[in-house]
Amino acid sequence: MTLSNSEELIAIGCLGSPHGIKGGLRIITHTIPFDIALDHHCLLQQDSKLVELNIEKLEQHHIKNVIYLKEITSRSTAEEMVGASLYYPRLLFFQQFPDQIYGPLCQGYTVLDQNETEIGRLESVDFIDDLPIATINTATHRLKVCVLAKYVMYIDHTQQQLAVKLT
To answer: What does pTM read for this prediction?
Structure first.
């Protein structure tokens, strides 16, 4: 698959800095937990092609997550992969993981309040301490809204809408 076919894909993360001499790479994902979507559907960008992610093993090292890929056996090969994006088929991702709204996964979704009134467009969902905070762009300003599960009324990935209770 080439990147020109990427309209039906969603970027779920990327490969970061090398870890160790055996070709490990830090992995940064927009999912909670980090490895929820690292299966045979996950694709890795190599040059201008997308290839299946062949994971040999995953490790957690303090605050970073490290992935070892079958085709990468040295630090120098790993250095060539830094910044490579990870993709997942969009429809399948949201069918399997409908509650995943973190980082830029749902960027551009319409955000509605409890009365189904449009608030604005979702920019991202980031964490402050352990609280997921949505940044919403309105016509006049940016709002920060907590999107803990108890405040999310529904997520409609087909209509690209997120409804939240504002209290």
So the answer is: 0.81
